[in-house]
């Protein structure tokens, strides 16, 4: 995972944005952005692939074609000129910031070395919160696959999600504010 600072920072003058980058250039773009002083976060998944007659383990981008960067909107021209950056996710002509809590949740899950895998985006579903363990306090949508509970963390702006395998006894229902 590429991240130039230890935590997802929330500087008042800066926002986190999702950058579209050239396919298969995510790691290189993250490295170049970090060299230019831009905080970036590239969530990775650990996969095992078979090539020819041998197996190899790789760290691949969790969201192919995207990475996250923190910068001031005024620095956009400097960011877009980094080789490999295509554009940012936008609403019309305006750069769309990413929800800081969604990025922080991804960072915590990746730091806990949980098994991650991309999954379809679920805009609705049962909201849960993890009560104990290294993921305590995270909330997301619960799903089941082959009798195993999974927590789905979503990045709403990208309409992408990741699935984390969890133990059902560590879950509690998120109460809505009444």
What is the straight-line distance between the termini? 39 Å
Which regions have little confidence, pLDDT < 50, spanning 5+ residues? none
Report the sheet-strand fraction: 35-45%
Shape type: globular
Q: Biggest β-sheet: count, sense, barrel?
A: 6 strands, antiparallel
**Radius of gyration of CA atoms, rounded to a whole number:** 17 Å
Strand order of the biggest β-sheet:
10-14-13-12-11-15
Average of the residue pLDDT scores:
85
Order of helices and strands: EEHEEEEHEEEHEEEEEE
* Helix content estimate: 10-25%
Structural class by sheet pairing and helices: alpha+beta
What's the number of helices? 3
Number of strands: 15
Please describe what this structure looks like.
By secondary structure, the chain is an alpha+beta fold. Helices cover 15% and strands 42% of the residues. The chain is built from three helices and 15 strands. The protein has helices at residues 26-35, 76-80, 100-111; strands spanning 2-3, 15-21, 39-42, 44-51, 54-61, 66-71, 85-88, 90-91, 94-95, 116-119, 127-130, 139-145, 148-155, 160-165, 171-173. The strands form four sheets. Strands 10-14-13-12-11-15 form a six-stranded antiparallel β-sheet, with helices on one face. A hairpin with a 2-residue loop joins strand 12 (139-145) and strand 13. The longest helix has 12 residues, at 100-111. The chain is globular.
